[in-house]
Amino acid sequence: MRLLTAVFLAAMTVSALAAEPVPLPRPRPDIWPEPRSFAEAVAGLDFNPAAVSDRPTDCDDRLAAMAEIAAMPRLIGPEACGGADMVELEAVRLPDQRRVAIQPPALLHCGMAESVAAWLREEAAPRAAALGSPLAAIENYDSYECRSRNRVPGARLSEHAHGLGLDVRALHLADGRRLELTDVAVDKPLREALRETACHRFTTVLGPGADAHHEGHIHLDVVARRNGYRICQWEVREPPPPVPLPRPRPSEAEIVKHSRKL
Question: Which of 54, 93, 168, 212 is deepest in the core (most CB within 10 A)?
Answer without folding.
Answer: 168
